[in-house]
């Protein structure tokens, strides 16, 4: 009897469970449905906010959507997310004569094809979208994007977004961000020991002269505090100031600008500035064995000529390369990556500031000081050559590094100057396939100017330079080499298709662009050319007074493949063509 009771009790419990199971399953499905609905609603509002940018075709909600359509929409959203992190945040804008530079607080990579510039009109509240010119990684934390100048009646306070995203409505006038005028702005800064070197437009344009540092101060903004310190040195576009004690002890990100003080002691407001310094720049300096010889250059669209220049001078003993890229839109980054894969130590520094070659060289001298004993400053079309080594049968490999090493222990020599010979088209009408050192062999008879290799720690604190040479601190001089010892072959006047690029713009601060009707007799211009890029009928025969095949013979005997005759930079060109 007891056994039947127990079995009956279990059957009642099981029947009770079966009676409640459909209801429980119904409630579970109901809760699940509610949760899913809430999730999609929250997701929709989250993606619709300004925090994340998505394509317009992902923002079309409807009341009844089949399950397959939901999955399809989710795939679309995922495709929209791809490559969209982090979001675009424009922190500064600088107005140049031919474009607007946008500085982003995040890194977005090089290219810019997926980015568009958004312009807002005046009274009609119109919006115009134009493709960006280019984008690039600026430094460790930021990126830059170049946008076309704002059309007439549109604000220069340009916005940025991904191509295909919903265009944002016009901002209120009070919400528009300030656009800095390139003629008057602090644009770069770098820590140098216990000081900060600031690069600024609009203070003084006295070329090749130092200024009174008592007329300047630096203002540091951390977001929490503001510090002001006195300038120690000033020249051209460079002001060096004391680094505040609190920033020495606790380095962090700060913005730095310059204050001008007139002779009566009256201060003007700090100039606008986009110059930022990150604490990691100071803390990341590690003491390592210095390279004996490094080279710094500033270039624009020189990727096709970079390989020959670096391979040849590496053979002469250059160990480290600092490439300051002044808005190139060719394959310079890819070429540098390829060279580095072949164990050439090359770094590219994005330098978006137009006509600031002197400032760029000063900036590079500070950067290179901890890595290099000597730093050469010369262009991609300039090649060192040692005539005595060639004539006496001496080996030229590592000749340049050996030369500077001989002066490393000389405490009174801070600069080595070498005369330049300017070469002409040498009868050619097309770019020489074997490179400039082999292709151009006819030059002018007399040397023209010089190039310098300097000791960075022996420069004056103002970093004053004239592109071709720097000013040394008191008591330090320079050594000028005889032409028989060393000379720089400057392939200045190449075939017209290459040479005419010089008419686009010049990189030096105090050199007038060739399209401007000024200083037409200057050595910075080509004799006989006007202000327009029109090829003279006899261009390929100009600037030819002396046939000189010394460097050509050296290159062919030391670099050419014994079987094919190809030069290493020429062989790479062949591989690229194949």
Automatic annotation (TrEMBL):
Its main location: membrane. This is Glycosyltransferase family 92 protein. It is a single-pass membrane protein. Its EC number is 2.4.1.-. The chain crosses the membrane at residues 29-47. It comes from the Eukaryota. Belongs to the glycosyltransferase 92 family. It is found in: Membrane. It holds the Pfam family Glyco_transf_92. The keyword Oxidoreductase does not apply. GO terms for cellular component: cytoplasm; membrane. It comes from Brassica cretica.
């Amino acid at each position: 009897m007891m056994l039947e009771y127990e079995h009956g009790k279990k059957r009642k419990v099981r029947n009770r469970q079966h009676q409640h199971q459909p209801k429980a399953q119904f409630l579970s499905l109901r809760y699940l449905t509610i949760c899913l609905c809430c999730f999609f609603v929250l997701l929709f509002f989250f993606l619709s906010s300004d925090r994340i940018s998505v394509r317009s075709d992902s923002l079309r909600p409807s009341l009844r959507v089949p399950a397959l359509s939901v999955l399809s929409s989710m795939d679309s959203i995922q495709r929209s997310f791809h490559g969209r992190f982090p979001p675009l945040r424009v922190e500064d804008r600088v107005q140049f004569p031919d474009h607007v530079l946008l500085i982003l607080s995040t890194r977005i990579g090089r290219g810019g094809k997926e980015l568009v510039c958004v312009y807002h009109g005046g009274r009609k509240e119109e919006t115009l979208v134009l493709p960006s010119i280019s984008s690039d990684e600026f430094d460790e934390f930021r990126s830059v994007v170049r946008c076309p100048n704002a059309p007439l009646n549109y604000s220069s306070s340009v916005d940025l977004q991904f191509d295909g995203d919903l265009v944002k409505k016009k901002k209120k006038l009070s919400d528009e961000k300030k656009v800095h005028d390139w003629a008057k702005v602090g644009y770069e800064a770098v820590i140098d020991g216990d000081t900060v070197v600031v690069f600024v437009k609009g203070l003084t344009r006295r070329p090749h002269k130092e200024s009174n540092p008592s007329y300047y101060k630096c203002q540091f903004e951390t977001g929490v505090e503001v510090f002001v310190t006195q300038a120690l040195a000033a020249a051209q576009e460079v002001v060096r100031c004391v680094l505040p004690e609190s920033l020495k002890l606790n380095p962090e990100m700060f913005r730095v600008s310059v204050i001008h003080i007139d002779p009566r002691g009256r201060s003007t407001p700090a100039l606008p500035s986009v110059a930022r310094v990150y604490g990691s720049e100071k803390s990341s300096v590690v003491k390592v064995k210095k390279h004996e010889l490094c080279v710094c250059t500033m270039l624009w669209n020189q990727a096709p000529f970079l390989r020959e220049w670096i391979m040849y001078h590496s053979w002469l003993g250059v160990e480290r390369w600092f490439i300051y890229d002044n808005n190139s839109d060719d394959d310079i980054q890819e070429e540098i990556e390829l060279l580095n894969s072949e164990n050439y130590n090359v770094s590219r520094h994005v330098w978006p500031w137009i006509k600031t070659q002197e400032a760029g060289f000063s900036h590079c001298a500070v950067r290179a000081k901890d890595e290099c004993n000597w730093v050469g400053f010369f262009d991609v079309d300039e090649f060192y050559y040692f005539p005595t080594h060639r004539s006496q049968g001496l080996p030229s490999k590592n000749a340049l590094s050996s030369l500077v090493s001989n002066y490393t222990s000389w405490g009174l020599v801070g600069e080595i100057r070498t005369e330049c010979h300017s070469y002409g088209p040498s009868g050619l009408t097309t770019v020489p396939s074997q490179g400039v050192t082999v292709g151009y062999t006819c030059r002018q008879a007399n040397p023209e100017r010089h190039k310098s290799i300097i000791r960075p720690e022996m420069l004056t604190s103002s970093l004053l330079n004239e592109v071709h040479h720097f000013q040394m601190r008191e008591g330090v001089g320079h050594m000028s080499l005889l032409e028989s010892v060393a000379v720089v072959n400057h392939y200045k006047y190449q075939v017209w298709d290459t040479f005419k690029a010089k008419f686009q713009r010049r990189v030096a601060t105090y050199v007038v662009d060739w399209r401007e009707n000024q200083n037409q007799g200057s050595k910075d211009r080509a004799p006989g050319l006007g202000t327009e890029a029109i090829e003279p009928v006899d261009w390929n025969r100009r600037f030819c007074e002396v046939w000189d095949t010394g460097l050509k013979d050296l290159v062919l005997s030391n670099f050419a493949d014994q079987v094919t005759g190809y030069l290493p930079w020429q062989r790479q060109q062949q591989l690229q063509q194949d």
